[in-house]
Amino acid sequence: MLFIKTDNKGLVLLGLLACCLFALGQASDNTPDAKNAIPLRTHSLYIPYIDQELQNRWFDFGGDAVINTNKHVRLTHDRQSQSGWLWSRLPLTATNWQVEFEFKIDGSNPVLFGDGMAVWFTKQRAQTGPVFGFMDYFEGLGIFFDTYANSRQSHSFPYVMAMKGDGKTSYDLARDGKANELAGCEADIRGRQLPTKARISYFKDNYLELKLHYKDWDQWEPCFTLSNVSLPTVYYLGFTALTGEVSDNHDVISVATNNIVAPPQRMKHPENSMYYQHSSSSWSGLLFMLKLIATVVFIGILIMVYRVYINQSNKRF
């Protein structure tokens, strides 16, 4: 409600400004991501990462991974032929969950760099291999942050993509996983000054969604949404990275996992995963534009009411 003091125009303007800010907040901050979330300490990781015994209660790390207790878990240094991993000790058993992690990919060479890193939700864990530092023929879901093109592609790199492994299918390394891709998006996530983050939301028998934060502060970009994603009965959360003839630093800075209590309404889209990538972004943009238009109209009405009020006040005197 807007309260106006008849002899104080400043209060009128203040009330108008408050209403405008509230309306803009309603238009821009309408995300259910943080609602009804219960933190899962068993699958979260923060500074200083390790205890006095140089271990972490909930995570194992190995390969070439090195922990800097003030900064990050470095999966690989900017050196050739490195492979490092970070895996949860316990399986992720929540029905609906959200994993948000901050990471950084950067190196000294501005032209030649790679190969990339991955986040995993798989039946196997803590095994080194050729797929971004993890084993081939895995069972579960892998999301790859690929920074090096092994072959000519229609999209640019870095490229983020998802693959569902059945334990029998090999990753298409020669063609950057083209034969395995469920969905993906181009994302300039390397060498960013802003915190680079990924947010993965999973609702069992409903959908899995990936959003990325790398363009601007508190701006999450939709990457893809997959319908009817099934994960193994038991699966672990893992992070891996790999370098070959080209290299980069691949760092995990923090991991925040939450159990989502109340899932949203079931999505109804065609069985075309790539459709979700574009439609999710399109619908989000359309919804934001509609809210923005409504906000502008609302502000215009308030200004008109204020002008009428001022004119009537002037007539009285």
Keyphrases for this structure?
seven-stranded antiparallel sheet, alpha+beta, 317 residues, eight-stranded antiparallel sheet
Overall description:
By secondary structure, the protein is an alpha+beta fold. It has two domains: 9-28 and 286-316; 38-260, Sandwich (Jelly Rolls), CATH 2.60.120. 20% of the residues lie in helices and 34% in strands. The chain contains two helices and 17 strands. It has helices at 9-28, 273-316, and strands at 37-39, 59-63, 66-68, 72-76, 83-88, 96-106, 116-122, 128-129, 133-134, 139-146, 159-166, 181-186, 196-203, 207-213, 221-227, 236-242, 249-260. Strands 1, 3, 4, 6, 13, 14, 15 and 17 form an eight-stranded antiparallel β-sheet that branches. Helix 1 packs antiparallel against helix 2 (273-316). The longest helix has 44 residues, at 273-316. Keywords: Membrane, Signal, Transmembrane, Transmembrane helix. This is 2417_t:CDS:1. It comes from Paraglomus occultum. It is a single-pass type I membrane protein. One of its GO terms (biological process) is endoplasmic reticulum to Golgi vesicle-mediated transport.
